[in-house]
Amino acid sequence: MPHVVVKLWPGKPKEQKTALSEAIVRQVTEILGYGRDAVSVGFEEIPAERWTDRVVEPDILAKWDTLVKEPGYVPKPKPGQS
Length: 82
Known about the structure:
- The chain is of the alpha+beta class.
- Helix content is 37%, strand content 15%.
- It folds into 2 domains: 1-45, 2-Layer Sandwich (Macrophage Migration Inhibitory Factor); 48-82, no CATH class.
- The chain contains 2 helices and 2 strands; from the N terminus they run βαβα.
- It has a two-stranded parallel ribbon with strand order 1-2.
């Protein structure tokens, strides 16, 4: 049962979040073979000044080896750092 959490800066309108959610659900059902009812999508708005401590450090740097798509705004950690 995939649950997708999208973390982003505040300010995107509900219409954009709904459109992104629908696109995510469509792709998850198509690619992974789950039914729509098995997929959930949540949005977590993180202020820019908290992005590093709430996203970069715990979700990107600490889990670098699990990333499938690396961000271009964070340098790759040196071996033993992640």
